[in-house]
Amino acid sequence: xxxxxxxxxxxxxxxxxxxxxxxxxxxxxxxxxxxxxxxxxxxxxxxxxxxxxxxxxxxxxxxxxxxxxxxxxxxxxxxxxxxxxxxxxxxxxxxxxxxxxxxxxxxxxxxxxxxxxxxxxxxxxxxxxxxxxxxxxxxxxxxxxxxxxxxxxxxxxxxxxxxxxxxxxxxxxxxxxxxxxxxxxxxxxxxxxxxxxxxxxxxxxxxxxxxxxxxxxxxxxxxxxxxxxxxxxxxxxxxxxxxxxxxxxxxxxxxxxxxxxxxxxxxxxxxxxxxxxxxxxxxxxxxxxxxxxxxxxxxxxxxxxxxxxxxxxxxxxxxxxxxxxxxxxxxxxxxxxxxxxxxxxxxxxxxxxxxxxxxxxxxxxxxxxxxxxxxxxxxxxxxxxxxxxxxxxxxxxxxxxxxxxxxxxxxxxxxxxxxxxxxxxxxxxxxxxxxxxxxxxxxxxxxxxxxxxxxxxxxxxxxxxxxxxxxxxxxxxxxxxxxxxxxxxxxxxxxxxxxxxxxxxxxxxxxxxxxxxxxxxxxxxxxxxxxxxxxxxxxxxxxxxxxxxxxxxxxxxxxxxxxxxxxxxxxxxxxxxxxxxxxxxxxxxxxxxxxxxxxxxxxxxxxxxxxxxxxxxxxxxxxxxxxxxxxxxxxxxxxxxxxxxxx
Length: 647
Description:
The chain contains five helices and 39 strands. It is mostly beta strands and 647 residues long. Among the domains are: 90-177, Thrombin, subunit H; 190-417, Quinoprotein alcohol dehydrogenase-like superfamily (Methanol Dehydrogenase, Chain A), CATH 2.140.10.10. Strands 1-33-34-35-36 form a five-stranded mixed beta sheet, with no helix packed on it. The N and C termini lie far apart (87 Å).
């Protein structure tokens, strides 16, 4: 009897031990990244699962191990060289299961250990560089990845969407979103909504018709496509939205493409079942050359709310009707719940290229408010009843040049901003006083397969704006000089840069009052970006290679570190692993192609004196290029920073 009891006891102990082992094994399995996990992304802060950290793209982290009292102790933990470069590092890395996933120039994807920076795997989609490079408007870049159900979903510059196994980098499926032969590229980060990958195309400087599309995240099967501008009206419209849009165009616009590409801003509200998408400029730039003078040209330069189940449009808002200034409305779309005039409002916010900060009701699309956060001369303000801009009539330029603000680079471009609910502030990397001199190309001739901007370059304004990186390649005009027209009066903040200052500012903006709370020099609408945390911090990467930190409430500078990367900077992220909070960023350009090599074409290059037939005077030796790197910082990190070279 005792022997039976002893045997039963040992069997119970063995069962308990096996159960414990099984429980530990299950507990150590990586967390499943499904729709529920993505809906709650960013709430814990230990991972970074989507481009903007949260579905609403707030870039806010609840982590507070690093705070205002100790951020000055931040030091480098480790470095990883991401590749040979060839452009800026505009991507936001993702963090999951102790691994950082990133994408660099020519759409090369990598996975590294988040503790040490040791490479786990690397995937090169083998983009045909010779074929693709001439079709790239604004740099050999990609802005990020998506993660879903054990898959890393990567956009390739040549128009492919590729799902990779998150553990070993194996290709699981490939979908062809667009074609280089049709002048499209893909530079944006994909987003996930209800098991679908949402992705848009770039290329509005070429004769293209913009769109974004959805694919099954598990299989890559095509689900739906939403065109942003109408096609040939002699053919059936794809949906009611296109029929409505066609009423806002004239002439034979479809033969020029129309533009409206989707290359950056998206956000998702799973409760409202809406995905929000920003659209790009019209093509060619002047509405007059699109044969639509005085027309709105829906849906260029617009914000769209679309049902992810079927791609049907619920509402739209157009910040720039009849765009003629390259004022894409693809900048970051940020979702938040704020109290305005005694009411709790579910809002969508955008710091637009055009210099105005917009607050909309994200459920209905109703206009709430807008205010200038930078110098603006193209408009006098925004009508509070209609939400339409009150344009300065002279901003509708003709043959005589006129200098306007902002320029095509924008008051804010792709550089990510962030929102901290505790302070109620949005932190905007802004080019406060960019300008550009516009005039219509008088002898415009449509060029199939080439850039068709339709404006005369050469009289560019200053102020750190212009076309800039991230704006189309420009050429000096051979047209005879004409008398410039007076610049319209300015609204918004006018700030004189400090002595020796380059670039723009970081602006802490109150979206409820539409007022600036504080600003700090450094940064700009293109390059780097921000993240804000529960540690009362705003952490900013500046395009010149610096990592800086401010108190989120007052803007007191607490950290300023030159990373040694010197340019080509991407935005920062933060995550927690083994009880330690880390901050990670990418930067460095590597060897860049010759100036004018991005899609300008031989005619433009020769007009600018950049053609291959001329011999240039010998240039002074250039400093060695800074090879692109992924840098990760931690409190009291001791690793040596990359050596900075003067440029």
